[in-house]
Amino acid sequence: MSVVANVPSLRLVHDARKGRALVVAAPEGVAAGTVLFYEKAYAGAVLSAFKGAICNVCYKAADPDICCDDCSEVTYCSDECQAHMQHVHELECPVLEDIDLIAKKSGTDRDLLRLLLRMLCTRATEAARPSPAIPGAVVTTFDDVLQMVHATQLLGDAWNTSVLKGATMLLDALTPAVATLSAKDVVELAGRVNENSYSVDSWTGQPQVTAVCMFPLAGLVNHSCDPNCTWSNAGDSIVAVKATRFIPCGEEIALTYIDTNQSRDVRQRELRATKHFDCRCERCTEALADSVDFRVDGVCCAACGVDGLFVGSLTTKVNPWACKGCGREVAVDGIEQFKQQAAALLARAEKSYDTRQYKEAAAVLDDLRDHFDVGSSNPSSLFLHPSHYILTKALRVLSDCNLKAGAIEAAYANRKEVIQRLRTVVQENSFLMATCYFDLGDVIAICLKHQVWTDDAEVDAKRAELHAAFQSCVDIRAVCLVESHPLLLAAQERLG
Ligand SMILES: C[S@@+](CC[C@H](N)C(=O)[O-])C[C@H]1O[C@@H](n2cnc3c(N)ncnc32)[C@H](O)[C@@H]1O
Predict the structure, then answer these.
(1) 219 in contact with ligand 1, CB cutoff 6 A
(2) Staple 107 to which of 4, 86, 162, 347, CB 3.0 to 4.6 Å?
(3) Mutation test residue for ligand 1: of 277, 279, 282, 285, the one with most atoms within 8 Å of CB
(4) Is the ipTM of this complex over 0.95?
(5) Residues 186-213: pLDDT tens digits?
(6) Ligand 1 contact via 275 beta carbon (within 6 Å)
(7) How is the chain split into domains, by residue range?
């Protein structure tokens, strides 16, 4: 593929289990924090939820006055960004006025339609595209988009029927010069969006996804549940793919398409449902007992503590599972039921949290800990491994509940504990760890402001802890994000 030729440190290979893959070609390998490539989006669309709030070109906060008066669908942060998109927007504008109607009549997702429309209009104006703001950023063509995989046959009749209807309506609304593809080709394009599109974070300092974009080069990067790269907004609709650890020559580069701090089962179900493949990454294929998944989703025997993990195999469905310590056997169903009860409590607490019933949510989470954490009073004499993903998630929600309910010292203790528990199962250079360190620094600052600690030596120690937390956040974000990213700047600012 021609776009890979523009990136000398990478090589395209064919992997029997995953299709095309990118591997490191640099003989000396690449260090953590190295930008593997910058790539300008072939096309992107700000999510409807952020309509009017986010610039359509750089994903900074928009200036509501710099908006298209005809369709009122697209807003920009500056005249420069508006000029950047003008040639494409002129073609899409009349159709955008009808986008709600097309979405409603066809039953097609509004954001998918907007991205398809933008791709069609970009294709018609490819020659007029301005150079990317970052020199050396890879620029792709519609032919590169067509090389991306799709799985429309797996998306079901209902999806295919509604997208075909939506595609037909889009094409009917476009001028003949733009509408040169068939409706079936547009459906395949939608399939490519489904398998390959990237969620791009905003450029606002808020950790939120605000746009969906097509990057034909980044679209060649496969998924791993133990990734060695991250992607993030680099401004001007450009993505930066960075190495999060040293990657030797010949190793495949891989990103994660999902939250990796979930059980193997949950991750595989999510990838099957959303991306339509069975994950063949190393973490998902190694024996459960040798994998970090053993702890992420581990159930322990109360008599033996954390050394008493139950050993089983998800693939061969060994039943019952035996405790590694004392050999006690428990039926797989019993273990599954135990985990499901914990998951149900967490879901209940999250629901209360979402409806701002913080005290109720905290009570449910305390109950969850009493019954499923180390030293639990559960009659089955089981407990979840201390780094089990349900427990760490529960602790994160509990810290937010306590903070909102004014129990700030408890929130501090929860956040500290989350980090201790996550450390053994989550990669240090990950967005999740960076957020946890930021949240810890934040809660210490709140406690200091409210004079939770009065002893001078204790206050000094907490100040040092606050500094260390923000420093850890800065260190991780410097590896994962570009230098000028607002989330990195926000953490640096808190360091003082
Ligand atoms: C974004 S594309 C990645 C590039 C793709 N391999 C290609 O040939 O164009 C995503 C597709 O790659 C394959 N894939 C990616 N990661 C995988 C994994 N961990 N296990 C199995 N297949 C994977 C799946 O077919 C998936 O739909």
Answers:
(1) yes
(2) 162
(3) 277
(4) yes
(5) 999 999 999 999 999 999 988 899 999 9
(6) yes
(7) 1-40+215-285, 42-213, 287-413, 427-495
